[in-house]
Protein: Septum formation initiator family protein
Amino acid sequence: MSVRANAMPANIQLNKGAKRRKRMLLFCVVVFLTWALPAFVAQWSKLNLKTAEMQGLQDQLQQLKLTNEQTKREVERLNDKEYIEQKIRTELHWYKPGETVFPATKAMP
Structure:
């Protein structure tokens, strides 16, 4: 009967292998998280900036749509001769010959 001095039971050697695999898996998880967390934080901050930028652009788009609608209405009204005459009288201060003009004075506050 030969007895080895360093011989260990089979279940103890299996436990060492399992511990080694667990340590290796833990090491891999730590390395992955060390790489992934900073990348995630950087992308999260970029996402927040882009979201704010998109909201600003949507607000600007709404304002431009409103301006566009007003301009379209103005173009439609410019096809009316009475409206054109009114604009000429108010903006350019033109009057028909023989008309008496009574300029309105602003009240002093």
Remarks:
- DSSP finds two helices and no strands in the chain.
- The chain has one domain: 12-91.
- The chain has a mean pLDDT of 86.
